[in-house]
Amino acid sequence: MTSEPATVDTPLKKLVGERTAKALASHLDLHTAGDLIYHFPRRYDERGEHTDIRSLDVGEQVTVLAQVQRTAVRPMRQRRGNLLEVTVGDDSGGVLTLTFFGNQAWRERELRPGRWGLFAGKVTEFRGKRQLNGPEYVLLGEGGDGEAAANEEVEEFAGALIPVYPAAAAVPTWVIARCVRVVLDTFTPPDDPLPATVRASRNLVGIGAALREIHRPTSKEELYKARRRLKWDEAFAVQLTLVQRKHRAAAWPAKARPAKPGGLLDAFDARLPYELTSGQQAVGREIAADLATAHPMHRLLQGEVGSGKTVVALRAMLQVVDAGGQAALLAPTEVLAAQHHRGMLDLLGPLAQAGELGAADDATRVELVTGSLGAAARRRALAEVAEGRAGIVLGTHALLYEGVDFDDLGLVVVDEQHRFGVEQRDALRAKAEQPPHVLVMTATPIPRTVAMTVYGDLETSTLSQLPQGRSPIASHVVPAAEKPAFLDRAWRRLREEVAKGHQAYVVCPRIGEGPASDEEAPREDDNGRRPPLAVTEVAPLLAEGPLHGLRIGVLHGRLPADEKDAVMRSFAAGDLDVLVATTVVEVGVNVPNATVMIVLDADRFGVSQLHQLRGRVGRGSAAGLCLLVTEAMEGSAARERLDAVASTTDGFKLAELDLEQRREGDVLGATQSGRRSHLRLLSLLRDTDLIRDARAEAITLVEEDPELARHPALAASVAALVDEERAEYLEKG
């Protein structure tokens, strides 16, 4: 170990020793002094302060600050030796049992009632009680008597603010605290990258003070200042990246695709069987104006399930076809791509029959390109696309492959953008000679600060009105474990709807045997829960049991494409009463006669996913009903999440709830790249004002210095916080 000054680039093995450095690297991906200094505490504990033990989730790896209340030793039943049970808690009433196996009398002497400590381990449940089995712990000293004294790093904080770090079982929080102390003792902070004018105008502390106070706060006030400065750095880096991207994109050339009076679009509007909502008309005008400019449109269209985004997108595609170009729509599943194809052919009628008898004069062709097309059909479709006869091309990621060439690609529409990786979207854009116009659609409502932070280089349009004729959807939680009779009633309710001539979905989180796919909920569970229910197992049980006599179909992603299409057509035609499916029905599937959805193991799905799923019912004149079946117990986090979904159909409220319950850094593409998130402190929900201020400063700075040439330290800091891969993710939306 060295006593030389440490910089952000100093390897940890020089500072904390090879063995500890290896553990930090392998378990927490921390390699340098900078990595460790930017590994911020998750929270700060104080003795006597309430630790909400009752809110701990089974299976969670936790560190709690608690006081020993009592100990008990009893012989083990299955083997020789004693079991030590230690009850810890605080004045709030929440308690946790620590269990130690084997003869460990010394622990009983050490863990005396009244002692405070940090206890780390995995939460399990035994006979209704939360417990940690054989946890790691460190006790806080009692005035220097030396007995079982805590590490001096923790001792220093006892009675003050004790940092609790994101940790691993092999590297508990107090080991991290000790390493941070060692590094801070010799650490030379980098030159402050933030321009002095910004620091002064926004009243921000210097970077050196912020990095010290975040780890070893001298007071709550100083800690607040440190966190605010470091949050600012994160927000500013992201906003600078987005504002720079937007600035550069404004200079890109693109072929203008102005509206053509008397063309396909006008003919389509004339044959529409219903009137567009005022929202659809307003958004349509925004998109039409974008398409008419010589710079590429880059617009996000968000709207509630069923708000009519597809018609808006189709009108944009027709404007591009009128202007001599082609439009491609990228859908996340073959089921959805095929449904878009059928729906657009129905809406366009003779306008989509170029080359056929009875076609309109200005007609084009609408081609479907998926991975399951036969060789002859594929050759024909690709020729239509390459020679420009197909003005509208629909498909899955099969559109991205080599061999799919466009004559003049003018518009790319990405449906349900969150289903696509960055490279996939970019591969489609690369098929145009000049950057095409891009319309990104999502039915997952996006909170304002997320839109500002993730889609800050896109113009945003929102459809909030539902078309006339859409019916309300009632949602209820069915607590199957507590009240089995409620589940029986759910199946009877489904049969009642079928008796009225309606149809129903039953959704399961898993397909069945075989490798897991993207549409499935994770099946592994270390906490003793049974595997999630599977479509291939549930369907026959329903056919033999509560849904006996009904016409039941099965749909999931592992079926051959022609079989999937046949099942979907049968359901849409009313030849099936019930469709037992995975989340393959989550987006875009439109069967107005379906009025009931029963989601099994609903707690295995995310909030936004459940909101999307229930949007499949209530699409006609009859009211929709969504029943969320769960074994999650009342008061648990999973149950509260389902209660929230059942309580509102406001997608924006649910999107905020979803964001609260996820790692917020995921929205910056951590899940895309599999790397650690760079949003460590910034909350997209709680730091709205700070994000807005950071964006304003970023706009001012980029207008003065587009490439940050006069601020090299800031440019380097932005590159470190938002690396190139993540910047690309932000840029591509």
TrEMBL record:
One Pfam family matching this protein: Helicase_C
NCBIfam families: PRK10917.2-1
Source species: Micromonospora terminaliae
PROSITE patterns assigned to the protein according to its UniProt record, in alphabetical order: HELICASE_ATP_BIND_1, HELICASE_CTER
Name recorded for this polypeptide: Probable DNA 3'-5' helicase RecG
Domain Helicase ATP-binding: 290-463
GO biological process, alphabetically ordered: DNA repair
Any one Gene Ontology molecular-function term assigned to this protein's record: DNA helicase activity
Xref: Gene3D superfamilies: Nucleic acid-binding proteins (2.40.50.140), P-loop containing nucleotide triphosphate hydrolases (3.40.50.300)
Chain intervals for the UniProt region annotation (Disordered): 510-531
InterPro entries reported in the protein's UniProt record: DEAD/DEAH_box_helicase_dom, Helicase_ATP-bd, Helicase_C-like, NA-bd_OB-fold, P-loop_NTPase, RecG/Mfd, RecG_dom3_C, RecG_wedge
Keywords of this entry: ATP-binding, DNA damage, DNA repair, DNA-binding, Helicase, Hydrolase, Nucleotide-binding
Limits of the Helicase C-terminal domain: 486-660
